[in-house]
Amino acid sequence: MNRFLCPYCQAQLNVGGHLVLSVHCKNGTKGVVLLSDELGNYSADISDNLKFNEGDHIHFHCPACSHSLEYKENKNLARVLKEDKGVESTIVFSAIFGEQSTYQINEERTLTFGEHALRYTDPDWYRKN
Ligand SMILES: [Zn+2]
After folding, report:
1. Which residues of 71-94 are buried (b: 16+ CB within 10 A; e: fewer)?
2. Which domain range does residue 89 map to?
3. How far, in Å, from the CA of 124 to the mean position of ligand 1?
4. Mind listing the pLDDT tens digit for each residue in 19-28?
5. Which terminus of the chain has a smaller tally of CB atoms within 10 A, N or C?
């Protein structure tokens, strides 16, 4: 059983095959997005009050504690935790609408997903945590 967790409050973020995140737009509009909990699957459902165009920066927040999920080493990425059979990984994914880049990082290895994964290939960015 995969569990996706907020790195700040440990809330479980996935249900029914989806990762549920809240989104805050610069103009004050807020909504939720449903992302697939399958890494590399970029199908998404977005509240219909939110409109994104290719290249827009999406500000993801935890739906439980509202903390920003922005990855501090790179503002174009967002971060959650994943627990899979007792193994904890960091999941980092692109917060740019239309960009398909996902990284699963743990002590043993880093897995990459998505056709744009090579856009973030600085070999050190993910070790800086
Ligand atoms: Zn939280």
Report:
1. bebbeebbbbbbeeeeeebbbbbb
2. 2-120
3. 26
4. 999 999 888 8
5. N
